[in-house]
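[recover] target loaded
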């Protein structure tokens, strides 16, 4: 009777070999592409998209309140139902039609 050694039944990556990867190397430039800046906020509508994470609403409200006070903007608020799932398309489409700028963020 012949028995197979462990090498025959284990995959190659699980035969006790340890692979060490070095973190050394070059760092590439990541192209930064963002939305075009709005030069003047006065008269614009700012949308707050709250993802329902703890304290996100506090941060967003504070930033929006300061912007509204300084620039006279109007603030529109929308909430995502749950931070663990993507925002529904209807909410995104609705806020995109109503405002020129959307602020969203996360906090804990």
């Amino acid at each position: 009777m012949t028995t197979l050694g462990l090498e025959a039944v284990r995959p190659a990556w699980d035969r006790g070999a340890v692979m060490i990867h070095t973190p050394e190397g070059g760092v590439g430039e990541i192209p930064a592409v963002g939305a075009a800046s709005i030069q003047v906020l006065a008269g614009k509508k700012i949308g707050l998209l709250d993802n329902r994470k703890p304290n996100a609403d506090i941060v967003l409200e504070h930033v929006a309140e300061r912007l509204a006070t300084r620039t006279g903007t109007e603030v529109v608020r929308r909430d995502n139902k749950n931070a663990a799932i993507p925002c529904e398309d209807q909410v995104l489409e609705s806020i995109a039609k109503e405002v020129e700028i959307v602020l969203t963020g996360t906090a804990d």
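[recover] notes: The chain has a mean pLDDT of 79.
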